[in-house]
Specification:
The protein is an alpha+beta fold and 265 residues long. The chain folds into two domains: 147 residues; 112 residues, Cathepsin D, subunit A, domain 1, CATH 2.40.70. The protein contains five helices and nine strands, in the order αααααβββββββββ. The chain is elongated. It holds the Pfam family Peptidase_U4.
Length: 265
């Protein structure tokens, strides 16, 4: 079998650049195209050592890890913690792409390669593997970022009504500035099931609201005897507010059961 060295190096350069690019996107760091090209070139040229020098498996592993550290350092040049994260992410994406390429090769030939390199891999299969990996990993990245964003905006809030305390998971809706017009107190929208076992005998407030589409209505609410935020075992000062009840689920995944007004913080 003939191996065109220039083609092999260029293919590896493209794949390395793609993996470095994904790593930078995942870690949400600024990157230089030139630095990424140099980093990818280092990884590509190191392939020659793997192919033409008789190295033991142990030496190959050490060499691969060292090259990965060098590639990440050239690309981001940050503190050691970020470099370690970058190396882990780079290995994760390399394994994912390699697995997809092996699957495509197996799907084509019906034979799973063992203890060997897959070199005669067509451009079409390579690009297909890159595209599939990119789509798959981008979905994972977006999902993780969304989850982290939501987690950072969810607060544990303890509410006191008539001496009955309830702790709720409340999501901070940054676009919500709902207030009760008479008292001017901020309004927390809570699923009514949270307080279904609490005997609430308080003066009701009518809270008008309007959404972006122009639709509006009124919510019924009551003034709480106090509320405070719970964070890392510490309690914030007791605050005043109005809670309004809704009969629908506020979170499809059940991550929270209340919506905070921006003015409550």
């Amino acid at each position: 079998m003939e191996i065109y060295l220039d083609v092999l190096i260029i293919e590896n350069l493209i794949v390395n650049y793609f993996l470095i690019y994904l790593m930078c996107k995942t870690l949400n760091i600024k990157y230089s195209i030139l630095a990424n090209i140099i980093s990818a070139s280092v990884g590509s040229l190191s392939l020659l050592v793997m192919l033409f020098l008789p190295l033991s498996n142990c030496i190959q592993i050490i060499l691969k890890v060292s090259i990965a550290f060098l590639m990440v350092y050239i690309s981001i040049r940050k503190n050691i913690n970020l470099i370690l994260k970058g190396v882990c992410v780079l290995f994760l994406y390399t394994i994912a792409l390699g697995g997809i390429c092996i699957f495509l090769k197996y799907n084509e030939t019906g034979v799973m390669p063992k203890n060997s390199y897959v070199i005669n891999f067509t451009y079409k299969k390579l690009m297909l593997g890159i595209i599939i990996t990119s789509m798959f990993l981008q979905r994972i990245i977006l999902f993780i970022k969304d989850k982290l964003l939501i987690k950072n905006l969810i607060y544990d809030v303890e509410i006191n009504i008539n001496g009955s305390y309830k702790t709720i998971k409340a999501f901070l809706d940054t676009g919500n500035e709902l207030r009760e017009p008479v008292t001017n107190l901020p309004v927390i929208i809570v699923e009514e099931d949270v307080f279904k076992n609490v005997d609430i005998k308080k003066e009701e407030y009518i809270i008008p609201y309007r959404v972006v589409g122009g639709y509006g209505g009124n919510l019924k609410g009551v003034k709480v005897d106090g509320l405070r935020f719970l964070s890392n075992g510490e309690n914030s000062e007791v605050k005043n507010g109005i809670i309004a009840f809704c009969n629908t689920s506020l979170s499809k995944t059940g991550e929270y059961n209340a919506l905070l007004s921006r003015g409550i913080l």
